[in-house]
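Margin note: ligand = NAP.
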Amino acid sequence: MHTTTLGTDGPAVSRLGLGCMSMTGSYGPADADEAAATLLDALDSGVTLFDTGDFYGDGANEEILGRTLAPHRDRVVLATKTGVRRTAEGLVPDGSPDYLRRACDASLRRLRTDHIDLYHLARIDPAVPVEESVGAMADLVAQGKVGHIGLSEVSAATLRRAHAVHPISAVQTEYSLWERHVEDDILPTLRDLGATLVAYSPLGRGLLTGTVQATTQYDSGDFRATAPRYNGDNLKANLSIIEAITKLASVKHATPARIALAWLLTRGSDVIPIPGSSRRPHLHDNLAALDVHLTADDLSHIEAAVPATGAKGARYGDHGIRLIDQA
Ligand SMILES: NC(=O)c1ccc[n+]([C@@H]2O[C@H](COP(=O)([O-])OP(=O)(O)OC[C@H]3O[C@@H](n4cnc5c(N)ncnc54)[C@H](OP(=O)(O)O)[C@@H]3O)[C@@H](O)[C@H]2O)c1
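Resulting structure:
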């Protein structure tokens, strides 16, 4: 497994990380035993970066990682997120220092560890200056509870303000073949600051794998049931992008998932995709992306097949869009 460095002075991490969110059912039913087996297979295959969040499954996701990976802690770079709380209205941001301190202690307990390698602020809280939130996270670094600080879905301007308080090692944002907004301002700013881009939903929340059809009915708890991009006419338009990727995949004797990840890997060694897999066959399919070589012709073919504006339809519903930092 190739590795890359997290930020300027972070640990070496595997070129592909493992996103663990679906292990507690974001895209349909989850299977905790299969999730644990997937974690161990990932570790044995050389994956070292594991990404979770304290609000995934209301803590249950961190618990799966804690009980499975604790015996192997020295081989794991643990990334988790905090800064949003679940309420009756859905997730709401809370970047107050008091909340972040308490959340960190709770995550450490669930993860069965004494430190988090990469601690992300999942969303910027508009009611709390980012300097205060990052200042509280810097205190956690000083206490040895956190190794490095990351931010998620942050604007370039907010990233610079945060970085002035404490070095930001990584930004986690959606980035895939069909979601490239990050290339405008955020990626250049990250590069200027020496931070890493952790690319989430690199498989378009599963759609870029070619496993969703226009007739697919999502479960009620499936995130995609409520986000515009994955439904109705938007979905029909977006499936044509996937068709083009699927055709290229068959020429390359690969799968669409491998093509989507191989493309992301060409974006730079400071871009770390974290495909979400809660099942071993998916994990191994995704890891095989590391062996796919995309030629200049392949890349031109992909650029021509995927509109520069990306997928049709918003990637979040109204509530989710409001949580994204626009500063
Ligand atoms: N910071 C944020 O706001 C944020 C938001 C979303 C996600 N994330 C992080 O990013 C990670 C990855 O993103 P994601 O999980 O949203 O989306 P993703 O990686 O784009 O897609 C995950 C979905 O694709 C399926 N899948 C994976 N590999 C496959 C393959 N080779 N063939 C067919 N299906 C496959 C998974 O199924 P199985 O689960 O059944 O394997 C899952 O349903 C998450 O796990 C989470 O850690 C962060």
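Residues 19-22, 27, 51, 122, 152-153, 172, 200-206, 209, 211, 257, 274-279, 282, 285-286 surround NAP (CB under 6 Å).
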